[in-house]
Design brief:
This protein is an alpha+beta fold. Helices cover 23% and strands 40% of the residues.
């Protein structure tokens, strides 16, 4: 999280955050003072969540997202 918008920090593009409402980890594609645009690692549909619903990810969440990406890539292979 980098930019400070009042009392709320806006995450920087490219960082990993946890969407607490959906319990999903995503990469920040864009962020405003109210909304964060996220995409799963390895691609997929972008989704939008409220700024207050995101938090920086810890090691556990980061690892979980990477394992999910590897598993999805393996399932796509013939």
């Amino acid at each position: 999280m980098t930019e400070d918008q009042g009392n709320v920090c806006v995450p920087a593009v490219g960082t990993m955050v946890l969407d607490k409402r959906r319990d999903r980890v995503g990469e920040v594609m864009d962020a405003t003072a109210s909304w964060v645009y996220l995409r799963a690692f390895g691609g997929g549909r972008e989704w939008v969540t409220a700024l207050e619903d995101v938090e920086p990810v810890g090691v556990h969440e980061r690892l979980r997202a990477r394992v999910a990406e590897v598993n999805a890539a393996r399932q796509r292979q013939p």
